[in-house]
């Protein structure tokens, strides 16, 4: 079966639950037998997204390190390394990829872009760090560099090395510029702890790509729509609070509208503190509200960002059902174009450890009109079938292994 779900710090040597750079735990699934045996990495696209690298890079890196052939089907998110490889071993190799091709050599921050530089017709690859402004080279002797040069990132920046000192130009004229306001990541995490886990929004959230229109007009329109839908959403909770709680002016409606109005400035900690202030941080209806208010069409990429908040607030089967109800409303009503992405959304939630296999399997086989109308409920569950099938097949693999033992 695929390895247990969860999220980890991108730098696994950093033992800090408030470390803001997180990624899903790399999952593996062994398929085939004999000479046809292979290791499939079902969440490689999600891991690579967290690292801001194309998923082909770490996949090819594994192949280089293991001396194994790899195959990629980007359209269907299939990333394969030939042979049977232990998940723990691949995670160690991923650490190596991160060290060599992601982390800034100067400040060890993972917030870097790969840049191809050219000097005298010789191409090099450097890491352009958004945190400290340094440009640090990668080891061009590694076999992966040949693959990267032939398959540069789609948004890769090209730079020319400055004559004389061999430094690269990052393309914006700010060579080696320091970040005056951000400070190091260690300083940031210390500040978080010292200020009751409040995030440094200037340094952290300003770099988030929310991909949403934050103009006053757009926010006003979304708030108005949210006020209208929030009351209907929380009424489905049925056993927490009364009529006073369930209106747009009740605590759940207030929380939802507050999140929308403060989307650009509020992180996971602030959202939790707002729920605490309203006295609803332990209620399952709060989870229903969070899914609708926090996420938009980039939900799959956004889930790891809010994983610590979800893990803290999803504490029972009832909470998980509310979480799934929120997904139904998010993709079935707010963003119908997301229906085909339901398997990826469920996989992302499963990976961060807020969905149990039994709960999501039961949900997937029982249409309900509790949170949405029956037609939408059927449509969302139908779309979830690839994920449910993956869970079932993973169980079958476990059973086969038990029989062999």
Can you lay out the helices and strands and say which pair or pack?
Layout: E1 7-9, E2 22-24, E3 29-31, E4 38-40, H1 44-51, H2 56-66, E5 70-73, E6 78-82, H3 87-101, E7 112-119, E8 122-129, E9 135-137, H4 144-150, E10 157-160, H5 185-194, H6 201-204, H7 216-235, H8 243-246, H9 251-261, H10 268-277, H11 284-294, H12 299-302, H13 307-313, H14 317-334, H15 342-351, H16 357-364, H17 374-383, H18 385-404
Parallel strand pairs: 7-10
Antiparallel strand pairs: 1-2, 3-4, 4-6, 5-6, 7-8, 8-9
Helix pairs in contact: 2-3, 7-9, 7-11, 9-11, 11-14, 14-17, 15-18
Question: Could you please describe the fold and organization of this structure?
Answer:
It is a single chain. This protein is of the alpha+beta class and 405 residues long. It has three domains: 7-101, Defensin A-like (2-Layer Sandwich); 104-176, no CATH class; 208-404, Serine Threonine Protein Phosphatase 5, Tetratricopeptide repeat (Alpha Horseshoe). Helix content is 46%, strand content 11%. The protein has 18 helices and ten strands. It has helices at 44-51, 56-66, 87-101, 144-150, 185-194, 201-204, 216-235, 243-246, 251-261, 268-277, 284-294, 299-302, 307-313, 317-334, 342-351, 357-364, 374-383, 385-404; strands at residues 7-9, 22-24, 29-31, 38-40, 70-73, 78-82, 112-119, 122-129, 135-137, 157-160. It has a four-stranded antiparallel beta sheet with strand order 3-4-6-5, with helices on one face. A four-stranded mixed beta sheet has the order 9-8-7-10, with helices on one face. A hairpin with a 2-residue loop joins strand 7 (112-119) and strand 8 (122-129). Helix 9 (251-261) runs parallel beside helix 11 and helix 15 (342-351) crosses helix 18. The longest helix has 20 residues, at 216-235. Mean pLDDT is 77; it is low at 156-214 and 231-244.
């Amino acid at each position: 079966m695929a390895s247990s779900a969860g999220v980890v710090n991108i730098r696994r040597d950093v033992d800090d639950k408030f470390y803001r750079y997180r990624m899903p735990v790399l999952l593996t699934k062994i398929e085939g037998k004999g000479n046809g045996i292979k290791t499939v990495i079902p969440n490689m696209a999600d891991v690579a997204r967290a690292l801001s690298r194309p998923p082909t890079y770490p996949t090819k890196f594994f192949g280089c390190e293991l001396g194994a052939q790899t195959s990629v089907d980007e359209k269907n998110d299939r990333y394969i390394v030939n042979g049977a490889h232990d998940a723990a071993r691949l995670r160690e190799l991923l650490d190596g990829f991160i060290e060599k091709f992601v982390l800034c050599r100067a400040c060890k921050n993972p917030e870097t872009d790969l840049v191809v530089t050219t000097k005298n017709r010789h191409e090099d690859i450097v890491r352009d760090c958004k945190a400290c402004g340094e440009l640090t080279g990668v080891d061009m002797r590694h076999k992966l560099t040949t693959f990267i040069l032939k398959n540069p990132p789609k948004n890769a920046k090209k730079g020319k090395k400055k004559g004389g000192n061999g430094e690269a130009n990052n393309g914006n004229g700010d060579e080696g510029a320091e970040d005056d306001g951000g400070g190091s990541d260690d300083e940031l995490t210390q500040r978080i702890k010292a200020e009751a886990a409040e995030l440094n929004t200037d340094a952290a959230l300003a770099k988030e790509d929310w991909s949403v229109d934050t103009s006053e007009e757009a926010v006003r329109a979304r708030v108005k729509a949210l006020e209208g839908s929030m009351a209907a959403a929380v009424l489905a909770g049925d056993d927490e609070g009364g009529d006073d709680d369930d209106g747009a002016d009740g605590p759940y409606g207030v929380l939802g509208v507050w999140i929308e109005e403060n989307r650009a400035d509020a992180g996971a900690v602030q959202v939790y503190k707002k729920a605490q202030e309203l006295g609803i941080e332990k209620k399952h209806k709060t989870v229903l509200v969070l899914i609708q208010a926090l996420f938009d069409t980039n939900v799959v990429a956004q889930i790891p960002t809010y994983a610590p908040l979800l893990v803290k607030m999803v504490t029972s089967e009832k909470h998980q059902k509310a979480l799934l109800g929120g997904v139904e409303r998010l993709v079935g009503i707010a963003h119908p174009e997301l229906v085909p992405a339901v398997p990826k959304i469920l996989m992302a939630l499963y990976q961060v450890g807020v969905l149990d296999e039994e709960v999501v399997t039961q949900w997937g086989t029982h249409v309900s009109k509790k949170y949405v109308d029956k037609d939408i409920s059927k449509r969302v569950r139908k779309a979830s079938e690839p994920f449910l099938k993956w869970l079932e097949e993973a169980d079958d693999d476990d059973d086969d292994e038990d029989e062999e033992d």
